[in-house]
Amino acid sequence: MKKTRGEKLFYIFNCVFLGIIALLALYPFVYVLSASISSSDAVVTGKVILLPKDINFDSYAKVLSEKGIWIAYLNTFYYTIFGVMANLILTICGAYALSKKRIMGRTAISFFIALTMWFQPGMIPMYLNFRDLNMLDSRFTIVIGFAITTFYVFLMRTFFQGIPEELEEAAKVDGANDLTILWKVYLPLSKAALVTIGLFYAVHRWNGYFWTMILLSDESKVPLQVLLKKLIVEMNVNDEMGNMAVYSKETIIYATIIISIIPIVAAYPFIQKYFVKGTMIGSVKG
């Protein structure tokens, strides 16, 4: 179909506008990357605007030589891997149950679950709850204490409801129970949904720092983001990583930021095909 002049102008305007937005969103990342491989003097004096100046990797060498960084890195992987596993297991189980019309009281159960999206207990009651359950300063608390997000349960439920009921009926004729149907019918058909929701959970886990900062007091258990928060907000580089008089605090911080986002950035291209398919989850009910 031939486009009108107005449609062409609108298309050009959209491309230009979205291109500007993309550049604005990309610039902070480019700046942080450039500053992390520039000399301390160039960063401190403001010479680094877009491209790096006096390229060197001293900050990365110093950051990677610190034992505390590797401990925090391993903690972050631990919380992300096991946390996402707990997230997906509970989300799948809850969504599968809520997707079945035969469940008695399904509407009431869904309503009470949805209430948690509208009414949050607040930070202090949640902390007191963890304290009374003796769950402070525990890795298990970080993994299981935030193991489900109501919004993703409803997204997954909607996706399950879009799978034809005839498949379930055929499986039951062959003698399959609910667990077998979930494992061999629903999950293979839900790869895009699982990868998309899993990615959201993984990013949340990887970037999470607030509750780990509140609930964990043992320095050997804190994730990378808590350490990064101390470096950026408190500018506590010397205390956290030893005497670095020959290094700039800014370059150390920028190098730590780049190191902290590498795994998520590296993983995204491999799951992008699933993510593109899964972006419409919940938008159309089959």
TrEMBL record:
Pfam families hit by this protein: BPD_transp_1 (PF00528)
Superkingdom per UniProt: Bacteria
Compartment(s) where it occurs, according to its Swiss-Prot or TrEMBL record: Cell membrane
GO cellular component term of the entry, any: plasma membrane
PROSITE patterns: ABC_TM1
Keywords linked to the UniProt accession: Cell membrane, Membrane, Transmembrane, Transmembrane helix, Transport
Gene Ontology BP, a term: transmembrane transport
Membrane disposition: Multi-pass membrane protein
Protein family membership: Belongs to the binding-protein-dependent transport system permease family.
PANTHER family, per database record: ABC TRANSPORTER PERMEASE PROTEIN MG189-RELATED-RELATED, POLYGALACTURONAN_RHAMNOGALACTURONAN TRANSPORT SYSTEM PERMEASE PROTEIN YTCP
Name listed for the protein in its UniProt record: Sugar ABC transporter permease
Organism for this UniProt entry: Paenibacillus odorifer
Top-level taxonomy: Bacteria, Bacillati, Bacillota, Bacilli, Bacillales
